[in-house]
Specification:
single chain; alpha+beta; HIT family, subunit A; 2 domains; nine-stranded antiparallel β-sheet; four-stranded mixed β-sheet; 12 helices; globular
Amino acid sequence: MDPERGITELLDMVAALSPADRECFERIFHVDASIGRLNPTPAMLEWIEESFGSVDAVREQRIVRVTNLVTMEGALFNELRAKRPVVREKPRELEAIIQQEHGGAFCKPLERTPEDTFGRIEGKYSVTASNIAKFDGFAGVVVFGEHNPLTFTREQIADYIDTGMAWLEKAHETDQQAKYPFWLWNCLWRAGASIVHGHAQIILAKDKHYAKVEGLRRAALAYRETTGENYFDDLYEAHKSLGLAIESGGTRILVYLAPVKDKEVLLFSSTLDDGLKDSVYWVLDCYVRRLHVSSFNVAILMPPLGPTEEDWSGFPYVVRIVDRGDPFNRTVDMAAMELYASSVIFSDPFEVVEVLRESIQD
């Protein structure tokens, strides 16, 4: 990667943008940088060399802070933190652990999982079940036919999404007041899954959308009222001007500058079409095969299934995909900073987008 195009050089990169691109970027983002300094003791020098590569890298550390002024999401980037010592569980082969869990309830979903009162939705590669410990009144599970959640094809990913959407439509038919959909996939325990077998979840709310989706709608609406521009269009253009965005099959893809956690990728599309489903597959395939991610979250944020009083115009289908770290790392990836301040990020978005671009072009 070009050393002048890393996250630590973001301020200089923004300053070099054309006036129009810089104006668009600064409508959404605020960036500042600082230097963290320290004086290690002589007894620490050998340990620092082994742990962080060099003593100089620790003496002066450049930290870049990015704030999304529209959504008030924020991230602190310091690549040195990725090298900090962590405590790992006794290493075990992930594949072996996944296979050890084979034969559980999700391996025989028609026999060993409950169905919803309106029945099941069966896809080519998946089937729904009723979530036994529900998030909401309508809460279901898309049980994958493939046990290993890290083994998937383009057709399977499309089927998992389609099966979930068919379930959401069926639930909406059952109760017209339930119209606010959400599709999510927690892959492995690090991402919050209590069952190893591959599965996604679908939920449908009444009255209002889920808080963070509604918050995004309100932020985008306020942005449009203030600037006259579409927030999602400008967000994509702000990333594109820095080389952090790709368009594939009509889907706009960006490596987000204010991620909730590492390597977060956002995808925008006006419809949940084959182009978007294919793009979700390509991102996940890149995650697993090239970026060596084994635990991740996927969420599909979408407009309501029926008419509402609030304004959803200009709100696209938004897919958010994020790395949740090494499943064997005992150090959690989200702590007080992420919960109450700003996310602390180890990965460089400019490195991630290069790998993602190569993966999509192959």
